[in-house]
Amino acid sequence: MIRHDAIDDDDLRRLIVTGHIRYGGNRRLRIYGRLDCASGKRMKRASRVFFGDAAEAREAGFRPCGHCLRDDYARWKDRPADAASGNRR
Question: Which spans in the chain are helix H?
Answer without folding.
Answer: 9-17, 38-41, 54-59, 70-77
